[in-house]
Design goal:
There is one protein chain. With 144 residues, this protein is an alpha+beta fold. Helices cover 39% and strands 19% of the residues. A 4-stranded antiparallel beta sheet has the order 2-3-1-4. It binds adenosine-3',5'-cyclic-monophosphate. The site of adenosine-3',5'-cyclic-monophosphate has 9 residues, from helix 4.
């Protein structure tokens, strides 16, 4: 299996709950390395650009309002099968449908306030990482 990178975000509801540490712990327990990390309060154009694929969805205005409501943390993750691994650790989009022991099941409030985001494929991972990180903001990790 090849080493992969993926993009993750810890959303404003999770910051409000004070669980950045718990989420990072679960990332590390899944044998993923955090190779980039940035906290920011996103403005509307940045969120609209990030979620452009959902622009026509009925929930889009609410999604933008929520994601601009407070600070969030952008993460670059690296590991074997990182994209699928992170999606497994997160759980399904809707916390009610997420498997037991996943972040969204344990900490999500509803389908909008679902604590975390993760890229769904190699192409989106590359795009999303580039959207938030310059190349020199992602460290080269020496795997043993
Ligand atoms: P995320 O993985 O960040 O990708 C798109 C986000 O849109 C998703 O998580 C949810 O937070 C949000 N979303 C998806 N479906 C709905 C919905 N039906 N109502 C509100 N928000 C949604």
């Amino acid at each position: 299996m090849a080493l992969e990178k993926t993009f993750a975000m810890i959303k404003p509801d999770a910051l409000e709950k004070g669980i950045i540490g718990e989420i990072c712990k679960r990332i590390e327990e899944a044998n993923l390395k955090i190779v980039g990390m940035k906290m920011h309060k996103l403005d509307r154009p940045r969120v609209e650009g990030f979620y452009a694929v959902h622009k026509t969805k009925p929930f889009f205005p609410q999604l933008v309002a929520f994601m601009t409501s407070g600070p969030s943390v952008a993460l670059a993750l690296e590991g074997e099968n990182a994209i699928a691994t992170w999606r497994e650790v997160m759980g399904a989009t809707d916390p009610e449908k997420a498997a037991e022991g996943t972040i969204r099941r344990d900490f999500g409030t509803n389908v909008e306030r679902n604590a975390v985001h993760g890229s769904d494929a190699p192409e989106t991972a590359a795009l999303e990482l580039k959207y938030f990180f310059d190349q020199n903001e992602i460290v080269q990790y020496e795997w043993m």
